[in-house]
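Q: Hi! First time doing this. I have a protein sequence and I read that you can turn it into a structure. Is that right? Here it is:
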Amino acid sequence: MADDMGWNDVGFHNPKVKTPNIDELRLKGITLNQLYMQPVCSASRSALVTGKYPSNNGLQFQVVSRESQTCLPLEHKTIFEHMKEEGYATKYIGKWHLGYCNRSCMPTNRGVDEFRGIYTGSADYFNWTEYTVLQRRVDDEPSAENIGTHLTSTKEMFDVHDFLDAENTETNKRRRYLGLVSAFDDLLGETIKVLKETEMDQNTIIIFSSDNGGASLTRKSPLYDYYANNYPLRNGKFTFMEGGVRVPAVYYDPRLHSRTRGTERDFLMHVTDWFPTFIQLAKPGRKMSSFEIPGIDGVSQLANLGSTYDCPLNRKYNRREEILVALTDATNRFINPPDCTTEDAAYRDGSECTLVSLISEIKEKTEPASSLTKNAITDRLTESATDLAEEAQPATKSISPASEDSKGPFCKGMAIKCVQSTDKGTDNFAKVLERIMLPKALAPAHQLKSSQWRDYKLVYGNQYYLADPSALESEWPKPEESPELPNITGDDCHRIENGSRVVRCLFNVIDDPNETKNIYDDEPAIVSMLIRKIEAARRVSVKAVYHPPLGPTNFTTQQFGPYLIPRDDYCTPSIHFPLEPADPKCYQ
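A: Yes, that's right. Below is the predicted 3D structure, encoded as structure tokens:
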């Protein structure tokens, strides 16, 4: 998992970027085009290790700051603990960023057998310090091992992209950033080489992705240079736009069939899905069609990562149709009553494969929509998806709870059970199909406008992370190495409501993946539906456990030889980060 790597910072998206090992992994594996992470580091990592949306695990707001009394709540059972139960040894190398203010928060107390890396969000590449505090850890103990020799800044690193002018301040910063990208790629190559030398390569699954969108020029900071790039996706890290949450990703399994290698897949996937997918990989005898882990938000995507994947007929197992992209509890927990006015949310509903796909396949083989009958549709669906049908049973009613008050039942999934039955006769059934499911070739356009919301993403709230476009040259900055790329412009998401500046955006992310056209005012039914889904998510969410950083004081740091190191005893789990339901004042 790369830290803050942008969509446009890999060779398979940007040929000018030199990442030969990632590119080779892609040619041997599967490219995941619709993997969603969280907009910031701690949230993504918490979702990965718990299988829960951050709004359900407590790390939905900000990140775990240095010297902060914040930690992933101890009530969560981590992926590492699950894997140990399956007989695996667990090792973690790199950035933890899930809290360290109490020893119970540390990796080796959360199911990790061996840890090497840093606990905080960042550290100097060469001396492992952050703000003069040594962050290097081996297991749970501070370590100055190899400081100054583990990584060296070489001329070769920064000459990989020597077509970027080193004399120009802006292009040189991008050049230096891409030098580190290439260094990351080199380390991946070295890892794969060692796996081959030790004959472990045929028994190792490798997954590459970024932890969130790249930190690009859309966010200015006096402390950091943000020279990642997400072009042509909108914006970047910290935001709920595609550039902030959709990331480059590759899945490699040596057992993949030759016809599967080098393919791309567009099924909808969220970082929480890796949790049950890993567990299922660890249970090779477990029946996939019945696989589930109670209490998590992720769904196993293992069936979609195999050679039998085929849209739309082979969607046999768990399938994700919607994602709570982000739900931020920005309440100030130190003020009573809580301030609930700064909440932000984003929700995406849909995927490229729905019942519409099947019906569109048979549009040339059926009677006009007005004469479609329940039996005609079920017969065709049975022919195409026999393994999904309920044997010799009529279609059953399956209405999504969130859509009961919509203009008609909403069909989810590819199974026969998702064809709606009705007590009002086949004529009414045909009208439901026209209004809800049928493609434009079979249904009146005016009836489709406010019903096919499955491919839409709503960004709703104050989104104080989202920069004012009036202060930017573009929300789609081009990489320094490619000034010839076309400029992208789009609609603003900001508006004034009741005297406050808010964000209100709706995008069709299938037809408009770069989020240029804001259709919020054009689709009130879709907006209302997605707001109801967000409200439902809020009602089951938990309080954010965020606390601001205290700084490197005697309370949070101690001496370790010539170094300052973090203490591990300056917070109390039951006081500072208990897992508690969201405040009902905020979600009534």
